[in-house]
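Supplementary Note 3. Input sequence used for the single-chain structure prediction.
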Amino acid sequence: MGPVADNPDAYIAALSGWQHARAEMMRAAIMRAAPFDETIKWTNLVFMANGPCILIRAEAHRVLLGFWRGKRLRELEPRIKASGKYELGNLVMTEATEVAPETVERLAAEAFRLNAELGNPAARA
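The predicted structure, written as discrete structure tokens, is reproduced below.
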């Protein structure tokens, strides 16, 4: 479970060590990619764009970079693992996992585009 935080800045500030550095890097890359709205939902840092789009979740020994349309992003990043019965997908990172800011930015831009094109992934028909 991630840190309990009232806002995105507090979420990042509550982290330490490699998790703080990784989450801070990913947050900056995501915000460079597109005009996301940041919020805290389900104890995660969530980036909204026509519904939920991306999340950062810090856990005891890993950090998740989750995408509501992650299954569609696997061509860009094959390490994204499908999660759940919809289109969710996560890139699971430990301290040893390398991920470049450019990769995160490219994934975020595509996730933003997919939500713009396909609509809110949380809205069920």
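The beta strands are 37-41, 44-48, 52-58, 63-67, 81-82, 89-93. Residues 8-117 form a domain with the Aspartate Aminotransferase, domain 1 fold (CATH 3.90.1150.200).
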